[in-house]
Amino acid sequence: MHIAVDMGTATGGAGASLDLEELLATRLLVQGNSGSGKSHLLRRLLEQSAPWVQQVVIDPEGDFVTLADRFGHVVVDAQRTEAELTGIAGRIRQHRVSVVLNLEGLDVEQQMRCAAAFLGGLFDADRDHWYPVLVVVDEAQLFAPAVAGEVSDEARKLSLGAMTNLMCRGRKRGLAGVIATQRLAKLAKNVAAEASNFLMGRTFLDIDMARAADLLGMDRRQAETFRDLARGHFVALGPALSRRPLPITIGPVETSARSSSPKLKPLPDAPVDVEALIFTAAADELRQPVRRPPPQPVVTPTADILAQLSRARPPEIEAPQTLFPEIDAAERDAMLDKVMRELLDDPDAGFRSVAVLYQDFLVRCRIHRVPGEPLALPAFRRRLAIARAEVDDEIAQGPLWAEALALSQRLTDDVQSVFLILAQAAVSGLPCPADATLARIYGTHSASRARRLLSYFEERGLIVVRTDFHGQRIVAFPDLQVETLPGDPNGPDVTREAAE
């Protein structure tokens, strides 16, 4: 079905339309400096296509929540846990509801984590719910930065991975990414490169004009024209828009953002006694506490510092013995294992992020009064991967399991648990785990992602995968000289059922 979305007018007064069905297959990139009309363009696209396709808007400033009053979008407040956002995203795809994810009020790192969890839920939806969805991401350079910023590496990797999945692999899942950015230079290249349709607005920096000209197939000398574009004027190119660069003017919209640019207003008439208004405090100001500047630091002369360093160190005072009995390392490890097992007994633990599990683990350690310094995040990741393997004590003391642990350290933290659950089955002489079990251990609902991990391990030379005549899968470990029993790759999640 051909749906032409009216975006405004083109050169000469002709109508400028966008092929919605083609857009769902080829994605869209919008670029323009602040004030060029990007949000106005996105709002026009959303309003004109609302009756035809489900929409999801990632809104960092809360500008698109007004779509709810006119077009029935559901506003999702992002001040929730990552697990809640992932679950909401899955139900959105199931029931085909248009939503606006409002990230207003969160700092940049929280916005990146919430957007990553929400996009991950959309991406990991069941195959039966892969309906077409228009996913609009405003200020995309926040969620797919080209370089590391002040946020943590973990938050950046989560957000960048979710945006990459949306633009690179989302088409087969019905996800059509529409991303808008102020500067192409700030947007990750592998995210921007997947768009086949472009709407380039006003920009002034040479590097952004050059990249925009390259994407549109224009001469470098024509890049200067991007400086002359007025607000709401864009140059369009792509299979859903035009086969040649086409200047268009975006049409009007029915809704408006809650915030708008300040407008010039004449100054008020000056009262008679202006100085009294300025230099006399009002009654409510007098009730506010007085903020005094911090005292200036005292500068110690260099000679005094050298004299203090040359003095003899006073004898150390022995620390008083604690009132509680000391605990050795083995007892502490046993307590940590108990807390970890309690954490993994939660049915939803397999699908929660490592950051959320780590915070839950620290809280449970305080509840159980585990002594000593809190476990660091890298050590927690390692202990979590080992605990998910569910190996019994007898096998854990053997040399084969020690060698399996050494082999797992060649892999990254996020895939060690899948490798160890396979090694545990081989060392214990159990059937090869099913794809559903591997997916849960990996923290996803997608069995295909778990199968790709087997190919990854095999490419690294750690395992050899083969299938017998009955279609049962066997995984062999050449370094350990053991292999799993035949197991049905399409079988149920036996580990979870046994735990329940």
Automatic annotation (TrEMBL):
UniProt xrefs under Gene3D superfamilies: P-loop containing nucleotide triphosphate hydrolases
Residues covered by the Helicase HerA central domain: 15-109
InterPro entries reported in the protein's UniProt record: ATPase_Atu1862_pred, HerA-like, HerA_central, P-loop_NTPase
Top-level taxon of origin: Bacteria
Xref: Pfam families: DUF87
SUPFAM superfamilies noted in UniProt: P-loop containing nucleoside triphosphate hydrolases (SSF52540)
PANTHER family named among the record's database cross-references: HELICASE MJ1565-RELATED
Protein name (database record): Helicase HerA central domain-containing protein
Organism: Devosia enhydra
